[in-house]
Model the fold of this input.
Amino acid sequence: MQSSYSIRPARLPADASRITDIVGAVWKGGGDALVEAQYGQIGNAPWQHYQSKAVLDWIQSPTAQAYVVVDTEREGEIVAFCSFQIDRDRDTATVGYNAVFPTHQGRGIGGLMMNYVMDRIRESGVGYAGVIVADNDEHIPARRVYEKAGFQTVYGLRYMFQKLS
Ligand SMILES: CC(C)(COP(=O)(O)OP(=O)(O)OC[C@H]1O[C@@H](n2cnc3c(N)ncnc32)[C@H](O)[C@@H]1OP(=O)(O)O)[C@@H](O)C(=O)NCCC(=O)NCCS
Done:
């Protein structure tokens, strides 16, 4: 990671607003955005609201650990976040939501965040780690980062949807 970046634990609710901004900027290829693109707005708010809520709920779960990457030359502005959860009973960690603000993508932050997360997971002592990622083009960088971190595909997933009545 460039020297102007550092990583620290996420502080919630203080960091929630910036994490919400990042989610809205990056997840145009995510499930909520793609459903909205096909069916129009669903519910009382645009997809960014529901996607951000899903991310914040996930990273605030009691078993989750979340971190943010800050730009130390821009007053500690948050430029990325990452997360994981540990399931001791299952002896497995799950890498969770992670994203890099668009203007900072392609600089290695995603890969270095993943290395940081994998170090924390290994320190935890669990024997296995998994991650779920979409197979569309928008997630090519994510799959690349996960493959470089050692993950191998077990199976693909398909999200299906319909309008009722
Ligand atoms: C996934 C994400 C966090 C990666 O962050 P990043 O800082 O850009 O990642 P890095 O720069 O470390 O690495 C990206 C890799 O993808 C590769 N890549 C990017 N676009 C690519 C493309 N169109 N085709 C092939 N490879 C591509 C880069 O070359 C790089 O690989 P390399 O290290 O071998 O060169 C970022 O793209 C993002 O926020 N995506 C949207 C949210 C998301 O998908 N999150 C993960 C799923 S929950």
